[in-house]
Amino acid sequence: MSGFLAVTLLLAAPLLLAAAGELLLERAGSIQIGLEGTMLIGAFTAFAAARSGVGPHSALLAAAFAGLLAGAAFAVFAVAGRADPILVGTAWNLVAAGGTAFSYRLLAGATGSVLEVRTLPPLAFGLPAAVLAAFFVPVVVDVFLARTRPGLALVAAGENPLALAATGGSVVAVRTAASVAAGALGALGGALLVLTVSPTFVEGVTAGRGFLALALVVFARWKPLRLVPGALLVAGATALQYRLQAGGSRIPYAVFLALPGLLALFALAAARGRGGSPKALGTPAP
Amino acid sequence: MSRESAARRFAVAAAALSAAAAALVGLALLAGASPLDAVRALAEGAAGSPAALGETLARATALVLTAIGASLAFRVGVLNIGLEGQFLAGAVAAAAVGPLLAGSPLAARAGLLAAAALAGALWVMPAAYLEARRGVPEVLSTILLNLVAAAGVSGLVRGALQDPGGDYPQSRALPDAVRLAPLAAGGRVTAAILIALALALFATLLLEWTPFGLKLRATGLAPAAARAIGLPRARLRLLAFAASGALAGLAGGLEVLAVTGRLYDPFTAGVGYTGIAAALLGGSHPLAAAVSAVLFAALGTGSSAMQRDTGVPGALATIVPGVLVLAVLAARARLARKAA
After folding, report:
1. Whole-number average pLDDT of chain B
2. Could you give the maximum distance between any two Cα atoms of chain A, in Å?
């Protein structure tokens, strides 16, 4: 059973990090549907850094830095530039998917051999520190949003940007900061995949996890602490599926794959009004 | 998404072209190849021979249809990001119904495509419902439906739709008599591209030149004015949801009927998202979107030849559309702010 629990936590951590960052950005009133692309950028950066000879912790840091830049770049288009974030995010996924595949081929050449990297060393319960730390991120985000002054400004940017602007706040600055943080967290999530689960990079290594994280934010109805049960449920279902597959069970595999999307759709349908989404979600800054 | 003046359109096109050229040259140099050689290999690989051109057109069909679907939806103000899922729903319907259809090949094809279009339209309905009744942004629900559709395909090709004659996760092949035959012997291009281009023309005529099209556009451009003059906003939006879903579903059906002959997993490498990119590049004008889609398809076919001949990774074909769209979005937003 401990094996099952460890696998669940390991699979939940990247989702939690990415979803917590996306939640911050959406609470600030923007939205990055190119989260999958940001995770890919993090995964590739961690891989490239680790291949260059630095240790796994430095690789993680490198990915976070790439994520900061990615978040800033997104903000240049979708926040300061006022282009529709949904459309920027769609293009973002193309650029990131193509860009990481392109770079990987330049780095690895045309050889089909698998290039492995060193994984993060375990700290407790056979899990690395970064995986365990991921579970505190939603708590930090929750406290930040509810109890700090910048957190309140962020919520204002997402609920009533005009009011924030009227009181002298800068909606663009707040959303840009949120985007930078979201970029770093998303990239860290992607990096964890390479530095824990499968110690190599392949094209599309994130396998839809960015979209799962988007679904989790909806499922959590934009409340940080609710991300934890959501991520555990999805990761647990995936871990269970591995176990059942190994045991030769014939429970339809698709049930597990479809679970996050279905859960989030039901959460939207069951919630009142706009499902709890921030009022100014996706609207340009005043 | 709005109508633009000629000068603005020119400025946007110039921004997009220079960004794409810069990306092409930069990426070729990064890969240590001569940009000129890379572009030559790309162009020859995409359209340098009848076979290459046929491959490009075969690849373009699904992209053209999803691009028209996205354009129609965007012009009415419906942000349908779920064309990927609707494409899959259409492909599933085609794979499910195809082997069952009896009678003449023509009737079987019509039945298959009707089922595919219907499946695509049905797959978007939860999003339309949640938006109309609850105000849930369709962006969120259509992305979620994409996830569920991808999971569904993955399960079906290993379950109910799996070919009983093999161990592979794929559906039964369509009978040869039903599949669309190539227009030229030995080629890959079929009548499917003609269907797609005809629909692009039809959508353009409907949207740009008919009173009904004006109503559709007004719903997207000026919702308040449209309501004030008594346009049935809810019904027009529902129609836009359904039509874009049906077009994406048809794309999935035609992919099975004309290209793959069966369903497998994963069945799409992002045709729904690239279709959206084509629509954006075309300013959500169906005909311009269709041209962009053919261009993206050409990039896709040409890039394999480019990778083989010059060593520049073929993933360039995914980067360039993204860069083009980012440039267009940035230029449009900038011009809009200058005007305001």
Report:
1. 92
2. 62
Question: For chain A, which domains are there?
Answer: 2-270 (1.10.3470)
Question: Which residues of A fall within a CB distance of 8 Å from B156?
Answer: 254
Q: Is A254 in contact with B315 (Cβ distance < 8 A)? A: no
Cβ pair A265:B332 closer than 8 A: no
Give this complex's ipTM. 0.91
Q: B143–A282: do the CB atoms touch at under 8 Å?
A: no
Give me the residue from A93, A94, A265 closest to B126, CB to CB: A265
- Determine the Cα–Cα distance for residues B21 and B23; give it in Å rounded to an integer: 5
Question: A124 has which bridge partners?
Answer: A127
The 3-state secondary structure of A220-238 reads CCCCHHHHHHHHHHHHHHH
Cβ atoms of B139 and B241 closer than 8 Å: no
Residues 199-258 of A with CB under 8 A from B: 203, 208, 211-212, 214-215, 218, 252-255, 257-258
Position B251 scores a pLDDT of 98
Q: Which residues of chain A have pLDDT under 70?
A: 1-2, 110-113, 245-255, 272-275
| Best of A76, A86, A87, A257 to mutate (most B CBs within 10 Å, chain B) | A87
CB B126 within 8 A of CB B245: no
Q: Is the dihedral of CA A283, A284, B1, B4 positive or negative?
A: positive
Write the residue in A77, A87, A274 that is nearest to B280 by C-beta.
A87
Tell me which residue has tokens 């921004």.
B15
Query: Quick one: how far is CA A254 from the chain centroid?
Result: 23
CATH number listed for the domain at residues B6-339: 1.10.3470
